[in-house]
Design a protein that fits this description.
The chain is 28% helix and 27% strand. The protein is built from six helices and nine strands, in the order ααααααβββββββββ. The chain has a six-stranded antiparallel sheet, with no helix packed on it. The longest helix is centred in the first third of the chain and has 11 residues. The radius of gyration is 20 Å and the shape is elongated. The termini are far apart.
Length: 196
């Protein structure tokens, strides 16, 4: 496969990737058009593959979806040994996985951007979660409790308890989450008293 074939293949894959990213964000073509300044018809033609993507179109789309250009066009790896984690947007919240192995405890950095506020809709599922707030104020609804966590505060809970979290104010919130789908708990070890 020569360089032109490789380029054509990468560009052909952009349309389905754009559609998938928009669906993950639960956005309409009209929402995306308002955010990027690109017309609905052009966005539709890009997603269907009827229009070839250009840099002028891809830059605002990558920004709107919160991904790099490399991620948008699925550029081949360069041999760089660093891990390039790909954020996922679900229900308006950015999930950045910090672990790559399946099973066991999974670590995420979560970001709830400033913008529209959602009403609490507590959910339940199997597992155990530990959260640590980095920036902003995080509102947590946990069973009968409704409280606000500030930077430096942590919480842990069984996810079979109805729970929901969102912004407590207008600013964005960033926090770390350790989640064990099988109910694994985070164990923090403290030094025994008397040792330095």
């Amino acid at each position: 496969m020569d360089a032109n074939d490789s380029l054509d293949k990468a560009l052909d894959a952009v349309g389905p990737r754009l559609r998938a990213l928009r669906k993950q964000r639960e956005a309409t073509l009209a929402d995306l058009a308002a955010q990027t300044g690109i017309s609905v018809s052009t966005l539709s033609r890009l997603e269907s593959g009827a229009r070839r993507p250009t840099l002028e179109l891809l830059l605002p789309l990558a920004k709107a979806h919160g991904v790099t250009l490399d991620e948008l066009v699925d550029a081949p790896p360069t041999g760089d040994p660093r891990i390039h984690l790909r954020p996922v947007v679900r229900h308006g919240m950015v999930h950045l996985p910090l672990t790559r192995r399946p099973g066991g405890i999974q670590a995420y950095k979560l970001i709830i951007p400033a913008g529209t506020q959602t009403e609490p809709d507590p959910q339940v599922h199997e597992g155990y979660e530990w959260m640590y707030v980095l920036n902003g104020r995080l509102r947590v609804v946990l069973g009968e409790h409704d409280f606000v966590m500030k930077p430096g505060e942590a919480a842990e809970f069984d996810t079979r308890t109805p729970h929901w979290f969102g912004r407590a104010g207008e600013e964005s919130v960033e926090f770390l989450s350790l989640f064990g789908s099988q109910g694994e708990r985070a164990h923090l070890r403290a030094k025994p008293k008397g040792r330095n």
